[in-house]
């Protein structure tokens, strides 16, 4: 009995001595809670640094956005392939996810070896090898010729700009294949897979193993928002608020951030914590100076740390009687599994003896106890360091959520965590001590990262399918060169019908003679009044033209025309106009003055002289009764008479295209075409009199108002009209009319966009499938909004803000789609308009028998002026479709009022000349 006591006493004394000895030797490796809290605070600062746009480039902890935005919600399904590369084992898997009632995931997998010559050889050989393994797997599982989406778990730091791309920043752990760093690993693998003609795989997602782990665990526990790996390497990811991620546009919701915490300390932040053993280990590693935090923690290094320490202790005569074996001198001879075995609760001591003996040592009882304690200190430090960094993440989550107490789950994986007998317990305990205000559940990922990777792939494949649907809609608006040439040809043919006596009455492009026969010559002068009705603004103007210097002074005032007047009776409309004139004269102090007046009236009028214009039909937003078929000049005169306050000499009525051509022609005599791309769309040009069958005489030229907005009203461009164009037409004031205008002008583009958005929403592709009241409201997308949305300088958030101003509650993804829709619609408009313009310049070139035509087009209209791309695309299209014409587009700075005044001046002079004769 006494002997037993004595033995026990002797043993505990021995143990105490050994522990004290090791504790003394490894003093620096034992971290107090105070130190851990300090490390935790440092890691919090590192995370902040990594997330900031300006600080990220120099941050050691990279905080990589993963483009994984949500944890699984159970709606995922499908069949996927998965690769898991970078941990201790390389696996290929097939994952079947179904929802039928309850969540159900089935996996089949196969491990493949990763020989050193492959993972440290040539990059292309590594990817060829991976592709070969995949092909082999597909063959054995009978999956060849099946097109499957693939999720790639790739456990190295990658910079991602989207889910299906990742630039390898640097190899870590055991990998060091040449020529891969700085390249996109997804394309590397895709390229390698293409060599296998018999497999068709689409890599939809690249995920880090931490992300895969987080998603795997979140599938079972929706509270899971952190993923931690303590395996060959160590790392963590967590769900960060988008508003804190500077590197990614958008601020709603969350995104998973791969912290790459293994690199913590690479900038020297942990030098006071690192020991001589850590430094020695680092020097002998594949990546010296890198992954310094990882090298104190993870499985690839723990055994080696122990070996270095044991060797040092032996050298100092503190172990093995000062004896060292050659195995103890050999790098890598002690592995993490040995450390785990030596720390086993019961068999630990026996295991230690066996392991040391295998290393060619002759350990005493005391040695075994000491070595066991070395292992404990090394692995405990590992758990402590992990705990400190994890505590920082948990605190960040709690603060982000503005909670006093956080309840959360951390998904765990990695061999150290899984096989080391004490590790999980220690880790959990320290974490709970460091963050007492977090209730943390640790959940081991039973099925590795793959299940999670499959969830991410499932979401990606749903997104891809949706993308296809969106692209299908956008494709309807993409016109080929042939289609545009066809439009050009048909427009040209319509011009001829409109000009010919026999076909004129039934022609859809009316080709109206304007009785404007020449361009300004600089001799015009005088004071004129002008009206400008039919565009976005109604204006009354006073125009003073001085001869010789081609200088013009203008005074104008904009007046509103309320909708009820635009669509009321004709008398009301003209009374309102006259009221505005009276106000203007009053305002200008011109009461009683009898000035000649030019009337820009931007609607189709049949003219028999310059001062007569019978409205054929209203277009755009006007629909006043009793006007169609009436002479607009007469109606204006009558309204002036009704008011009986002043008299005006109405000399000319001109279309806005004609006014615009004249305005520009005053500066550039080469300007023989006028184009409006505004509320409506129209064009006029100078035509040879001999071609105008409706007007007597063959000499000289006359301006023709084409009214090309009506092009297509006979169905000739129905092949390119979409269901959305038809919807817009049906909802308009003039169904079936002005079909070309409805595809090309400001009043309708926004409506087309709105119709597309409604359809995409109905298909569940936008606005979470919810059609809001706002979206149902006609006219919400004015040209100015389209123009703003499409501006290149605008960040996504600003687009979103515009949509919000319009009352559309959109996510950032929605905003991207809306912008694309706007782009497709406005691009088509510019191209169609370009095809029309190409038709007229080519006609002019041919009519004049020229090899090459140089001509200027005067242009006006809010679409042309405000839209960021319209004018460029228009110009490009004309150039392509009319290569033998040198077309200069000249913006009319002064509106059509000036042109109308110039026309009035010429008409007045002619009037006087006639009187005098
Ligand atoms: C596995 C995951 O379970 O754990 C891998 O499926 C991960 O994706 C690995 O890389 C990490 O642990 P270890 O110890 O294999 O590096
Ligand atoms: C103005 C002209 O500048 O542009 C008007 O003065 C013309 O005559 C108008 O109708 C066309 O553009 P919008 O976009 O106002 O219809
Ligand atoms: C290394 C890698 C990291 C990975 C971790 C765990 O730290 O850089 O991407 O998550 O190992 O496998
Ligand atoms: C409409 C009108 C036309 C006008 C054009 C531009 O198409 O019918 O006359 O020129 O809009 O304002």
Automatic annotation (TrEMBL):
Residues 22-219, 470-664 form the Hexokinase N-terminal domain. It is found in: Cytoplasm, Cytosol; Mitochondrion outer membrane. Pathway: Carbohydrate metabolism; hexose metabolism; Carbohydrate degradation; glycolysis; D-glyceraldehyde 3-phosphate and glycerone phosphate from D-glucose: step 1/4. Keywords: Allosteric enzyme, ATP-binding, Cytoplasm, Glycolysis, Kinase, Membrane, Mitochondrion, Mitochondrion outer membrane, Nucleotide-binding, Repeat, Transferase. It comes from the Eukaryota. This is hexokinase. Its EC number is 2.7.1.1. It catalyses: D-fructose + ATP = D-fructose 6-phosphate + ADP + H(+); a D-hexose + ATP = a D-hexose 6-phosphate + ADP + H(+); D-glucose + ATP = D-glucose 6-phosphate + ADP + H(+). GO terms for biological process: glucose metabolic process; glycolytic process; intracellular glucose homeostasis. GO terms for molecular function: ATP binding; D-glucose binding; fructokinase activity; glucokinase activity. SUPFAM superfamilies: Actin-like ATPase domain. Residues 226-459, 672-906 form the Hexokinase C-terminal domain. Belongs to the hexokinase family. PANTHER family: HEXOKINASE (PTHR19443), HEXOKINASE HKDC1 (PTHR19443:SF28). Its main location: cytoplasm. One of its GO terms (cellular component) is photoreceptor inner segment. It is a peripheral membrane protein. It holds the Pfam family Hexokinase_1.
